[in-house]
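Troubleshooting entry. Yesterday's outputs looked truncated, so today I'm pasting the complete records for two proteins to confirm everything comes through intact. If either block looks cut off, that's the bug. Protein one:
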Amino acid sequence: MAPLAQAVTVSLEDLKNGTVSFEALQEAFGPDSLGILIVKDVPSDFASLRQHLLSYSSFLGNLPKETLDKLENEKAKYLTGWSLGKETLKNGQVDTLKGSFYANCAFYVDPSLSCARPTEEFNADNFPEYLSPNVWPDEATLPGFKATFEKLCRLIIDVAVLVARACDQYAQKEIPNYPNGYLEKVVSTSTTTKARLLHYFPEDAKPAAEPTKASELVNGAEDEEEDDWCATHLDHGCLTGLTSAMFVDETETPGLVTAPAFEGQTSTSDTSDGKQVPAILAPLPELAASPDPAAGLYIKSRAGKTVQVKIPRDCIAFQTGEALERITAGRFKAVPHFVRGARGAVGGSNGPVRIARNTLAVFTQPNLGEEVDMEQHITFGEFARGIVAKNTVS
């Protein structure tokens, strides 16, 4: 089984005070690092927002197909709204194991914005991937979803700004001609940042005698299909904020989008047909841990080995992306990683237990016209266009 690796951890207070050491940043993001930093002691409302939003991931994934179809945006290559089976993995395979919901986070900069600000080069016609407005389920379908999504994303970006500030302090000392405060400005003023709510669907249980593929790894050696849930890849932004995963027993999936979700909620508004709508759905029960220890986040270490990294439930993790590597002239390195969902567990009083894995990733990214390669003068829009083209089904 792939070994567990311990990520560098810092406190939110240290970030606020500017007291995170350069050694810690190098250990977290440098050439010999895992490319991940965990922030503890985050704001007190994080725990509730995380549990509510990750519950919405199961609510969303179990909506009727005709409802989900209306949330798709093919023109934007599914980089806004809902998608399932639209992303290519290794060897050209189509990913049918997870559904995702993308939203632009331009609201962080300006609540009136629903997508990135256009530039002379990039507009809604030639780059709809970043310039198409958000597509939200209506309140009657998923009451409270949009508000919860935006609140949690704001909190994560607030912390990302502080991580960026710490990176700037390091870069200003170590990189010749590095612009003061550049990464913090990029993260705090970007209208291009995107968030992705992920729902890894339960997989049918495997016979007890057949081990999970990830558990067959020896000393980090790569199994042929170890990353079949999410192919090994690099994020192409600056800092990716990650919540820990929520594992949910979806053995009784029909119940997820019916009455139990609405129980105990206060009705606060009326719909056009006179029915009252609750302000927010009750969160789902969260398993204490995944019944499949192989489920989770895996990183390809600089030594070429596969290691598993676990994010504490009350913390936010930040991974390095390709834009950060370019901005810092290679001082900080993007991290190759993949994710595995939970295999079905045999047993349970009513037959096989079906476990879903829900999580949120917030990709902080430069504005489309900002440079990510200061030597070759490549803008983020130019860079991102090439990445998007090779990651989606043609």
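Protein two, checking that the full record survives here as well:
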Amino acid sequence: MRKLAIILGFCLLGSMLTSCALPIVVSNYVDSMGNEEDRKKIEYTDEAKKSGFTLEKPATGAVAGKDEFLIQGSLAESKAGDVLSVWVSKDGLSGKKPVTIMDKKFQDTIPLYYGKGQHQVEIMIEKNGVHVTVAKFTVDKTSDVEQTPVKYSGSYQTNGITLHQPLTGGKSYDGKVLLQGTVVPPSKDEKPLKYMIVHAEKGEDTSRYYLPVENQKFSQWIPLRFGAGDYKVSIWLDEMTDYLTPVADFNVKNTVTADLRDLLPGSGMESDNPELIALSKKITANASSPMEKARAIYKHVATNVSYDLKKKDNYWDDGALKTLRERKGICHDYALTTVALLRASEIPARYISGDAGEPHAWVEAKIGGKWIPMDPTWGSGYSTGKKFVKAYDPSYFNPNPASFKKTHKKPEVEY
């Protein structure tokens, strides 16, 4: 049986600083791992017995895994919203994976981060605000793949979020990364999440996406639109305040060389949707040049969408498909729809967030190597009091630059 003095003595060694920095309450261990045979056992603490913690998988220590392994078990002394903290360590490096407990049971996939060899696994529960170890064992990783831990925040746990894909950072992707998981509120009284927000950053370039949550699940490909290199992908909660609450973040590498920021689909700009591609082809069927195609798309949006004077500022689920279906929207919707149709026609286009006497959105398309502006909202008609009057105006397609700049102030491009 291990002695407390020996455990505390290890903390004085420089090679053990990472492990000893973890918030652990030391307990006497039931089993010992002093030799190879004992290493194959799962080492449970006294606290495991007190709290009713059991592991069904793995059934023994020293199991083997390629890049990950499965844990499954139960915690009798648990309530809604409780989370296990599973720490995976090797050669002084550590990463944590939160595991949600539902109805006193848990099951999750745990990554092995640090290359081939023996990884130490430590499972902890939180008790009275303190993290307490309940079990330890080892897993032998059989692959040489190096991975990095996802960084999770407290809101990940309190909102019942589980990220199934990706399990780790540090991987390479061909232009897009899949975010997939579940959101199960710990309490039935809690309002379910409708969406989360994703940022994909490369240097000073940032793209923003809405991640819908439907039937307690989310699944969406996030484009890496700024060309090859390293990206930070972060997930946030929109608390409808002046700031976002972090959920999780991880790093990835994009292997696609081309910078496709103005051609890839985005939130509300579903340019890869078959319905939108078919519509863009129909709209531009008689156009013989990119300029004529862009003009035809501008006219279609301006004449087929009416301004919604009653719409409120809650537009996380807006998009081109929704706008075309409902045939109404605000400047945000006009711009999303125009950009989507232009990109579906392989014309580079971007959403401009600016000011035209009040916050406003319009579009720029790249034609003949130049960015030309268009404002399909102003080209759609005008308002008289509480009524919108449809009146197509072609002058807001590729307008005189000097005149347009007097009314439209462009502070930023949004991706």
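Both blocks look complete. Sanity check on protein two: The first helix runs from residue 4 to 10.
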